[in-house]
Specification:
Length: about 140
């Protein structure tokens, strides 16, 4: 078993880290990914090709990538004879991916604006939400 995550732009994607951790045990295995594998070569190799080369037999994808260039990685995996299942735990994955996906599709920043007037009547739940949003945003 291998696990991985994408640390930062220009570094290997999560799939490469997971395959490296799994080694030869990846052959015939299932890859579970949050976002559809990329199908283009840029700063890093195409993720879909790394899974094909590793001998993965099944890929489970939570969210299809709306920014895919040309045919997405899922179609290339299927063409290589790999079983592909999509939209698995999609809503849960969107909880994490939605800000990035929104920014990527709109080609602009994703913003959360926290606003409350002083002296405004707020319930305890609203006050907690406001404090949480303020604590988790950057300026």
């Amino acid at each position: 078993m291998g696990a991985g995550f994408h640390r930062r732009k220009g570094e290997p994607y999560a799939e490469a880290h997971a395959l490296n951790a799994a080694g030869v045990a990846a052959r015939g295995g299932t890859a579970v990914v949050t976002l559809e594998l990329c199908n283009h070569v840029g700063v890093t190799p195409a993720c879909r090709q790394e899974l094909i080369d590793a001998g993965i037999s099944r890929v489970v994808i939570a969210v299809m990538d709306p920014t895919s260039r040309g045919e997405g990685g899922a179609s290339m995996l299927a063409a290589a004879g790999i079983e592909v299942e999509t939209d698995v735990l999609r809503d849960e994955a969107l909880t994490v991916l939605e800000p990035w996906l929104t920014a990527a599709v709109r080609r602009g920043p994703y913003l959360t604006w926290v606003f409350a007037l002083d002296g405004e009547h707020q319930s305890a739940a609203e006050e907690r939400l406001l404090l949480d949003l303020r604590a988790n945003t950057t300026v």
